[in-house]
Amino acid sequence: MSGLLMLPSTSLSIQSDGNLFHWNHLMEGDKLVLHRSKRDWMWRQFFLSEEYTGSNYQYVGKLRSDKDRGDGTARYVLSGEGAGIIFRIDEKSGDLHATQRLDREEKASYTLQAQAFNKITGLPLEPATEFIVKIHDINDNEPKFTKAVYTASVPEMSDVGTFVIEVNATDADDATYGNSAKLVYSILQGQPYFSVEPETGIVRIALSNMDREVRKEYQVIIQAKDMAGQMGGLSGTTMVNVTLTDVNDSPPRFAYSSYHLSTYESAEIGSTVGRIKANDGDEGENAEMKYRIVDGDGKEYLDIITDEITQEGVIVVKKKLDYESKRVYTVKVEVTNTHQDPNFTVLGPFLDTAIIKVTAKDVDEPPVFSRPQFVFEVNEDTPKGIAIGTITAWDPDATHYPIQYAIDQHTDPERLYHIDPKNGSITIIKSLDREVSKWHNISVLASEMNNPHQRSRVPVLIKVLDVNDNAPEFAMIYETFVCENVRAGQLIQTISAIDTDDPLVGHKFVFSLSSMNPNFTIFDNEDNTARILTRRSGFNRREMSVYYLPVVISDSDYPIQSSTSTLTIRVCSCDATGNMRSCSVDALLLSAGLSTGALVAILLCVLILLMLIFSAQRKEPLIISKEDIRDNVVSYNDEGGGEEDTQAFDIGTLRHPEVVESNQLRRDIIPEMLFPYHRPSPMKECADVRDFIISRLQENDTDPSAPPYDSLATYAYEGNGSIAESLSSLESSATEGDHEYDYLSNWGPQFKKLADMYISKDTGVAN
Asked: Where is the Cadherin domain (predicted)?
């Protein structure tokens, strides 16, 4: 088996039987002993230093085939990575050179193939052999940090050794070859506050009690050096910006031990007097503060509110200030942190106090009344000019100007009262009546004489007390009647009384008759009511239709007031059960205060109105069948239109006499229900026509089935014996032919109207 001999510049190799052997020089006693070891793999690697700086090509090694007889017929060819560009081989000698400066960090090894050919035949002398050229590392790269600038934060007041940040650097050199990539970290800037671990790059706190309020930010420079930090090693640096974060280690403090503020005494409640602020070196929620008043003679008048945005204490008015009574108000204010850290309580106390003095400034104030409102009581019978009370007010200012009083006339439109402008005394100038108004609400104005614009107002309530100055009277108008057939001792009326006065213990009325009455008596129920009873029986309205009974009503207050009210009692006709049927017309007239002529006129108007309503109703057909031909004669008992008036009667009654006995419904309304036929009760013999008419009128007014009219008609059948024959047109010819009516002119004046109607009609048609 043939082989290719490779002779690098750093080793001794011998080609034998296709195997490569390396001879090690060993000494055994005084003899040099050569031991052969088989190393057929050694020839496959070459080692070449990077960053060669010589002027000639860098020699790599020599390639030689055992088929090369040295006669110049062998030619060596190189292929693979960088062949012909980076690496070149001498075709004759097989010497291998690197033509470029190599960088291990760019490429650490190259794989190549070498083969020997016969120049003459061009045939390979042996198969191609692959080998590797490895680049030996030199320390030509400095360490580089992963970030040019690091940012870190750590709480202030942290303990020594507290972790801050870890920095990392890398070296492009070969870490497996020498110390070119072995890094060591050190701190160049930032001592004595921080330290760095040499091997890990961890930055830690090196100084205790680092206060953010003293210094907040630090710049630390860290160095990483290769060659294990030895002299001649390469290095790189980075910057770490360290910020101390806040903790609540600074208590709030007032800048001054006392503050002086001022405001006008007229300042409204809740208005701002001033602002104060304590200093706190912390920030965020650690700087949040709360203010409160803990002491002082002004605690009742002043208050403090915390402004959560500005962290200021706002002094406000809690109660009205008064310059005249107190000019300086002093309070002690305390400020504390709202979020305290128990780890730093040893640095406390986390509160501070200050004295706030507020000076009240004088303003010209309006008068002040001695009460917020005045209430007076006066009897309603108090004479005019009597004083009922006094209003008092004063000037609260130090000047103490005199006060003048006046009544607001808008609150006393009736001008019932007067006030003395100097002393404020209120007097009555008109009579008072409690029954008209129990309370009077007026307003009194007080103003300074030297400055009328400074004015105050106070309500004055005047209660008018009741005096028994009104007598009781009937509670209502009574319509009392007594039946003719009444028995003695019969109750005919219960009466009661009212009194506009308002006694403290309530009303108590006493009823009596002014004198002995033979017909009626009164019985006091002692509950402010009384019963009217009959003393006898056998009343007759023809003898006396109306009785007048004077009733005396007295109250029980002081002074006692009484009055006499007259009860009008009518005598009426009643049925056996005591229900009134009719009363004397004279009694009705007297009770209503009307004369007989006036009542007759009213009745006539009612009758005429009913007749007009009846005539407006739709009439039922007079004759339905032509076979039913009847005439009638109507007799009127009113001043009607004579023969020309044909609307005052309903001839349907003649054709249907049974309707008198049937259920008649009113034609002017829609009936809600059917009423049974009301047959009028027979009237007793009565010589008084007026009573008869009134009785019938009441029956018809209360009868829902009665038609809305009153009429008295007498009907009679004329028969067939009339010389004028029938006047009805129902027997006329069914044709529309012309008729002659001239003969109607010969019938006399009674038929003149009829003749004028038909003759003029006939003439008109002919024309």
From this structure: 65-145, 146-254, 255-369, 370-474, 474-575
